[in-house]
C-alpha cells in the first residue's frame, strides 16, 4: 500500500485524506486505524465483505459516528472537521448512503429541498421553483414520477435514483468528494450506465468519488483505484489495472485466489421429481399500473426468476404477487387457495413469504432487536394471544439464526448494528421460520457481499430441494444465473420470453432484456 501511495503522491497531491480513522463499539473494533487518500479526477472503489467496516467508515466521514481520538482529515490541503458535515450545506463531502436517507412520507420535491435547501425568499417557499428543480433532477436519471406525491408510492429504484440526483444536484462546479454507498443495488444495467455517466462527468470536472459496491463488474468499469478492507482495516490498495476479479475476491474473502471463472451459466437444473410437479403458485391475468397481463406458475421445488429493465414491470411483479400493490388485479392460486383479490394478510395466511426490495424501509423495524425482527412473522406460534413465550421465542430464534448463518450471540442487539448481508438473512429467516409454501424475493442480494451472496444462494437451493417454490425478481443477473430453473423476461408489462437450461446465462439474459424487440412468448 505504501509503495502505491508514494507513486501517486509523487505525481499530485490528494484532494481528500483521512488518517487513522478508528471507532470502537462495545466489544468490537469496527474500524481500526484506516487511512485513505482520494485524488482529483478519480473514482476510488472501497471494497470488503459485509461487516468489514466500510459502512461504518463512511458514517465516520459523514459525521454520523464520533471516531476514537487521533483522526485527521484534510480537503484540498486544509484540515476539515468531519463532525460538521451534516451541519454545513457547503461542506465538500457529499453522501448517498446505503439506506438513502430519504423521508418516504414526504414528496420528492420535499426530499430534494431538505438536502439542497428550500428555494424562496424570507419565510415563503417558492413551490413552483421547487417542483421545477425536482423534475429537472429526476429527468436527468430518466425518472418520471409526480414530484409532489409521497415517496412511499415510488419504487425502490425511483427512491435510489432520487437520492443520487439530490446529491449530484447540489454539487455545482466546485470540487467535491461524492461518496456513493451501494448506489446501484436496485438498478438495471441501463440505469447503472446512466448513473456512471453522471459520475464520470463529476470526476472529469476535478472531483473525487468514493464508490462502494459488491458488483465486481461495476468496479472494473468505473473505478480508477481500489482499496480493500477486512476486519476493520485496510489490507490492500492500488490501481484497478493491477487487479483482477479473482485477486479482488481473494483479498475480500482472505482466501487464495482461484483461476478466473468462465462465463456463468446456471448451476441448477429443472427438477423432475414427481412430488415437485405441482404448482404452489399460479397467477392469471396479473395486472397493475406497470403490468399488462401476466400468467405464470411456480412449481414446488422450483426457483423462477423474473428479469427485465426498469419500467418493464419486473420490479412490480413480486409486490403484486404478494398482495402488496393496491392496484393489482387478476387471479391468484397460492398453495391450493384461490383469490380474485389478494391482500398481504391473505397471502401470508395461504403460505406465502415476501422479502421486499428495500430491507431497511420495508423489511426491518430499525428500532427492534435481531430477535424481535426475526420472530415477527411467527408470533402466533409462540404462545397465546394474551401471552408470548419469550423462552420459546429465544430458543427457536437461536436455531433459525444458526440455520441462516447469523451468529446467535447477536440476538439482543439492534438489527441496525448488523451488516447488510446479516440483515438480509434476518428477513429470509423470518419467513423460513413460518415454513411457507411459496417465497417471493425482490432484489434478494442487494447490498450483500460475495460471501453472504453465496450463502443466500445456497440457502435458496436447499429450501427449493425441500419443496419450497421460489419466485425471484431482480436486476442482478448473477442471482438469476446462479439459482434459477427458469427465467421470465419482461418487457412493456408482459412476459415476452422464457429462458431455461443453458439459455440461463449472462449474455443471453442481457441480450433478452435489452433487445429492441423480442418475439412474443407463445
Taking the sheet with the most strands, its summary is:
6 strands, mixed
How many strands appear in the DSSP assignment?
22
The chain-level structural class is alpha/beta
CATH class of the largest domain: Alpha Beta
In angstroms, what separates the terminal alpha carbons? 57 Å
Mean pLDDT: 83
Q: What is the percentage of strand-forming residues?
A: 15-25%
Over all CA atoms, what is the radius of gyration?
A: 23 Å
Describe this structure in words.
It is built from 17 helices and 22 strands. With 522 residues, the chain is an alpha/beta fold. The chain folds into 3 domains: 2-224 and 231-253, Rossmann fold (3-Layer(aba) Sandwich), CATH 3.40.50.300; 271-351 and 436-522, Rossmann fold; 366-434, no CATH class. A hairpin with a 2-residue loop joins strand 21 (486-491) and strand 22. The radius of gyration is 23 Å and the shape is globular.
Concise account of the structure shown:
By secondary structure, the protein is of the alpha/beta class.
Q: What are its keywords?
A:
522 residues; alpha/beta; Rossmann fold; 3 domains; 6-stranded mixed sheet; 17 helices; 24% strand; globular; disordered N terminus; disordered C terminus
